[in-house]
Amino acid sequence: MTALGLGPFLTFDLLPGAPRAPLREVVARVAAGVGGVVDTSPLYGSAEVSLGAIMSEMPEARDIFVANKIWSTGDYLGDTSHATASLDQSKLRMWRPVIGLMQCHSMTNAGVVLPLMQAWKSEGQIGHVGVTHHESSYQAELTGFIERGGCRADQPFDLQPLGRGQAAARRRRPGHRGLRQPAAGKGAADACRGGSPCRISRRISAPEAGRSSC
């Protein structure tokens, strides 16, 4: 996969009838690269719909690797129905029978959702399982899931600093509490320097492991 991927947050969230020609050009450029990557989410407004419609009409986009997220928490701790509905909806919107990477984004019931996602992987509904979050304060918890075996610990993850524009955009989102600085300590939190907000953006395989999923 390419080191640089496409994140459709805000830019692909367009109203019905809005011009989408510029978006098609963006997707075409991603498709032109070898192993292009798209990382989307059900909470990015109409981004999934926009991407799915454009990619379904573009034969060269069939090889784009699609990463998505599960944000659902359910009506109670063991409720998996919301997460399952979210997966089905994302597959329909993206016109994909299989999602390349599905990431558990809500830590509220990650202990329930991660085993469910592993089952999806076994069933062939998704290719890989991951965990992620948009606030740097959750890095220690994310590391804990990896260390406890929620995801395989034989593969490292990379943390990427959020750009000023991206951080500012997230702070402007209604109801968003804003980004906090990484907590001091060992492990994942030490990977971001200079006080920059960071996130675990994707899992990458260790050279000796030869694998790219959890």
Structure keywords:
214 residues; alpha/beta; TIM Barrel; 4-stranded parallel beta sheet; two-stranded antiparallel sheet; 6 helices; 32% helix; 15% strand; globular; disordered C terminus
Question: Strands, helices and their partners?
Answer:
Layout: H1 21-32, E1 37-39, H2 47-56, E2 65-70, H3 81-94, E3 99-104, H4 110-123, E4 126-131, H5 139-147, E5 157-161, H6 164-172, E6 198-203
Parallel strand pairs: 1-2, 2-3, 3-4
Antiparallel strand pairs: 5-6
Q: Describe the sheet with the most strands.
A: 4 strands, parallel
Helix-strand string: HEHEHEHEHEHE
Give the neighbour order of strands across the main sheet: 1-2-3-4
Q: What is the CA-CA span between the terminal residues?
A: 17 Å
